[in-house]
Amino acid sequence: MKQYIIRRLLQMIPTLIGISIIIFAISAMVPGDYITARANPNMSIEKQEQLRSIYGLDKPDYQRYFIWAGNMVKGNFGDSMQHKQPVTTVINTYVWNSFIIGIFALFFSWFIAMITGIFSAKFQYSFFDKIVTLLVFICMSLPSFFIGLLLIKFFALDMKLFPVGGMITSGLNARGWEYFIDVLKHSFLPIMVLTMLSTGSLTRYFRTSMLEVIRQDYIRTARAKGLKERTVIFKHAFRNAMIPAITLLGFELPGLFGGAMILEQIFVWPGVGHIYLNSINMRDYPFMLGFTIFLAMLTLLGNLLADVLYGIADPRIRLK
Amino acid sequence: MAKDLVEFRNLETHFQTTAGTVKAVDNVSFIIREGETLCVVGESGCGKSVTAMSLMQLIESPPGKIVGGEILFEGEDLLKLSKREMSRIRGNQISMIFQEPMSSLNPVLTIGNQISEPLMLHMLLDRKAAKKRAIELINLVGISRPEKIFDSYPHELSGGMRQRIMIAIALSCDPKLLIADEPTTALDVTIQAQILDLMRDIKQKLNTSILLITHDLGVVAEMADYVVVMYAGKVIEEAPVLELFQDPQHPYTKGLLKAKPIINQKQERLYSIPGQVPNPIDLEDNCHFHDRCEFCMDICKVKQPPFRSHGKDTHKSACWLYEEEREVL
Amino acid sequence: MSADVMPITENKNTKAKAVDTPWKTAMRRFTRNKLAVIGFIMIVFMFILCFIGPLFSPHNLFDYSLKNKNLAPNGTYWLGTDKLGRDILLRMMLAGRISLLVGLVATCITVMIGATLGAVAGFYGKLVDNLIMRVADIFMALPSLPILIILGAVLSDLKVHPSSRIYYLMVIIGVLNWTTLARLVRGQILTLREQEFMQATEALGLKDKRKIFKHLLPNTIPVIIVAATLSVAGAILSESALSFLGIGVVPPTPSWGNMISAANNLIDFRKRPWLWIPPGMCILITSVAINLIGDGLRDALDPKTKK
C-alpha cells in the first residue's frame, strides 16, 4: 500500500509540471499586469518600472516561469500582491470559511442522496421513484448562480428569513453561541445551494448502484435466510452499493477546499473561491497561479485518495 | 408411508411482460414427503425454479405474481401467511441453496457473519453461541480449519467450498426442507460428486427433506426418491425414481432419458429432442409438447391431456397416448 | 427473477432486433421513455422560440424608448422591458440563439478533438496512446471553471471585440472539454480494434486514416452521441456562468447569462425580477431538457440495458 501511494505520488509530478506550464502560459498571455491593473494615473513611468523590477515582472516569460516554478518546489508560492502576504497564508486564512460550507454541503448531500437513492431503487418505477428521477435531473441541470440568486431573492429579500450575504452580521460583536448562530444563519442558503447541486448526481449514482446490487444473487440468498427486508437492504445491499461510491468521496476533496467561486461571490461569503475570483479581477498573479496549482494538486490527491479508499473498502482488493 | 411435508395444490405463478403473460407455473400440484428427496426435472425455462421460488415466496413482484393455488407446509397454506410470518419460516424451516455459489455469498461480509446471521435471527443465539454453532456447521459440511474460514471472505474460497458454506447456512437452523436449485451445475464434475455426497449424508444425518431442482438426469438417478417432470410450466409426469427410469410414459420424459449419455455403452450419436421449448407467452390450451412429439395426434393440438395415473397409483402422467377419450374426438 | 425464465425473454428480443435496424430499435426505446420525450419536446420548443419566435415579435431590438423603460410585464411587453425600454421577451429569444449556438458549436469542437484524439490513441496504442493520455490527465486535473474564468479575463484584457467574443468562447469551452469524450472513444476503439472486421481491413490493406475514420469511429457513434448531448448542457452552463460574471458573451450581444447579471444591481434584483428570472428559467429548462434527452439516448443506444 505504502509503495503504491509513493508510486502514485511520483506519477503526479509530470502532470503537475504540465499543468503549471499551461496555467503560467495562460496568465502570460494577458497584456498588462498587476501594476497596470492598479495603475494610478499619477504614478510615473519610472515608478511603475521600478515596481515591476521589484516584483520581477520585467523579466522574460520563460525566466519568470522557472523562478516561479523553482520557488513552488521549495514550497514558496510567492506573495499575493493584493493581500501583501504569502499566498499560502492567504489560502490558509480563507480556505476554512470555504471548508465550513463545503463540509456541511457534503454531509447533507450524501445523507439525502443515500436515503433517496436507496428508496428509489427499492421502489423502482414507483411514483416516488419517478419524482426522484425528475428532481435528480433538475438538480443536475441547475445553473448554480441563478438558483443562488433565486433563493436570495425569495428567502432573504422577500421573506427575510435569512441574511442576504456575508458570513457574520457586520457590527455584531458576538462571541460563542451567538456567533455560531449568526454564522449558521448566514451559511444556510449557500449550503443549501451547494447541497442541491451535488445531490442530483449523487442520488442517481446511489440509485443505479443499488439497482445493480439488488439484482445480485447474494441478495436473494439474504432473503432466503429469512432476513427482514430492512436488514437485506441496509446491511447486505447497502454495503455493496457503497463500495464504488466511496471512490466519489475522494473526488469531493477539491470541492471541500477549493471553494465555490461563483456561489461565494453571490453570497458574499468570505471563502477562498471568492478571494480567487477577486484575484483574477485584480490580476494578482502570484495568488491566481498559486491557487490554481493548489486546486490541481487537490484534484490529483483526490483521485489518489479515491483509489486508496476503494482499496480499503473492498475486501477483494484489500488483501492484495 | 411418511407424512406429507409440503403440498403444492394447483399453483399458478405468472409473469407480466410487455409481450403478454407468461404462465411460468401453470396448475402445478405435487407433494414432498418427510425425509424424502424429490427431484424436479426439466429444461431451463420450464418453471422448476419458479416453483421453488414460489414456495419461498421470493418471486420478484412485479413482474411475477402467484395468482392462484395453495402451498401447504405441514398443513398450513404458506400463501396466506403475512410477510413477517413467512420470513420466520424462510431460512428456518425451509432453506435454500442456489446454482451460483460464486455470487450467492455477499462479497463484503465474512463467512462467519453470513452463517451467524440466521442463527441469531431464528435461533435467537447471541454472538458467541452463534460463532460456536457456525464453526460446528462449517465442520459439518466438511471444511477443515473452520476457525480460519469463519473470518474469511467469500473470494478467498473456491467454488466448491462456497457451495459447502451455502449448505452450512441453509442447514444452520435445522430446516425441515432444503431446496437446492441446480446446486452442482456451476461446479466441476469432481466437486459436483462431493457436494451431492454431502447432501445425501446430511439428509441421512438430519432427516431433512430435499427438493432438488435439476436438469441433469444423472443427478436425479443418484439422489431422488421421487421425480416430477415439468415442461412449459406444467407437471407432465411424476413417479418414484426407479419407476420413472424403467417405465417412462410421457414422450418428453422418454426423450430426456434417451438424451442422456450412458457410460460404457457405445452410441452412434447422442439423441436430442427435436424442436425448441415453445414461446411461453400466451400459450394455447393444448399439450405444449405437441409440436416436438413424434406421437402427436390431432387432439394434442387442441386439448390439454388430463394429469392422472395410468395403472400404478404413484405414477402419473399427462398424455393423450394413454387416454381412451381420444377415440371420441 | 429466476435464471430459468430469462433466456426465453432474451430470445424474443433478439428476434425482434433481427427485424428492426439498430437505429429503429433505439428510436422505439427512446420514444418509450416518457421523460426523454418530454425533454425532446422542451428542447424543440426552445429552438422554435429562439429561432422563429423573434420573427413574430412586434418589437425591435433597437427600440430604445426611455418612456417605456423598466415596465413590468404587460399586454404589449409580455415579459416587461429593461432600463433602455427594450422588450425582454425579444432579447431573451435572441439571447437564446447565442446561448444555444455556443453550446452546440462548442460541443462540435469537443467532439472533433475528443473523438479524433481518442481514436488515434486507441488505434495506435503504445507511445502515441501514452502521450495523448498523459496530456488528457493534465487537462483532467486542470480546474475547469477557474481556467475558463482566467481565459475570459484574458479575452477582456486583449480587448477582443464583443461581437467576435462568442467565437473565442466556443473554442475555449470546446477545447477544455475534450478529455471525457477522448477517454470514452479510446476505450471503445481498444475493444473494437481486436474484433474480426478489423482484421479484415488489415487484410484489405486499408490506410490507417481510412481504418480509423471509416471503420472504427462509426462504431463508436452511439457513445459519442450520448456524451455530446450531455456536453451541450455543460457548455451552455459554462457559457452562462461566464457571461453572468461579465467575461463571457458581453453586451450589447445578449445571452441568457449576461441578462441574469442584471441581478447584480440590487434594485433590479429586488424589484424587477422579470429582468433576470425568465432567462434563468430558460437556462434551467434547456439544460434539464438536454440532460433528459441524453439519459434517454443512453438507455436507447446502450445494448446492455434491457427494456
UniProtKB/TrEMBL annotation, chain A:
TM stretches of this protein: 12-30, 94-119, 131-156, 187-206, 245-267, 287-310
Keyword Cell membrane: yes
Keyword Transferase: no
A biological process term (GO) from this entry: transmembrane transport
Domain of life: Bacteria
Keywords associated with the record: Cell membrane, Membrane, Transmembrane, Transmembrane helix, Transport
UniProt-listed Pfam families: BPD_transp_1, BPD_transp_1_N
A cellular component term, taken from the record's GO annotations: plasma membrane
Entry's localization field: Cell membrane
Membrane topology classification: Multi-pass membrane protein
Annotated ABC transmembrane type-1 domain residues: 95-306
Family: Belongs to the binding-protein-dependent transport system permease family.
Protein's UniProt name: Diguanylate cyclase
Organism (species): Paenibacillus glacialis
Upper classification of the organism: Bacteria, Bacillati, Bacillota, Bacilli, Bacillales
UniProtKB/TrEMBL annotation, chain B:
Keyword Transport: yes
Domain of life (superkingdom): Bacteria
GO cellular component: plasma membrane
Any coiled-coil regions, as ranges: none
Keywords from the UniProt entry: ATP-binding, Cell membrane, Membrane, Nucleotide-binding, Transport
UniProt-listed NCBIfam families: oligo_HPY
Record's bilayer topology term: Peripheral membrane protein
Location(s), subcellular: Cell membrane
Major site of localization recorded for this protein: membrane
GO MF terms held by the record: ATP binding; ATP hydrolysis activity
Entry protein name: Dipeptide/oligopeptide/nickel ABC transporter ATP-binding protein
Source organism of this protein record: Paenibacillus glacialis
Classification via CDD domains: ABC_NikE_OppD_transporters
TrEMBL record, chain C:
Top-level lineage group: Bacteria
CDD domains recorded: TM_PBP2
Membrane topology label: Multi-pass membrane protein
Subcellular location: Cell membrane
UniProt family annotation: Belongs to the binding-protein-dependent transport system permease family.
Main location: membrane
Pfam families: BPD_transp_1, OppC_N
Transmembrane feature ranges: 35-56, 98-124, 131-154, 166-185, 216-237, 274-294
Record keywords: Cell membrane, Membrane, Transmembrane, Transmembrane helix, Transport
GO biological process, one term: transmembrane transport
Domain ABC transmembrane type-1: 96-294
GO cellular component: plasma membrane
Record-given protein name: Peptide ABC transporter permease
Presence of keyword Transmembrane helix: yes
Record has Transport as a keyword: yes
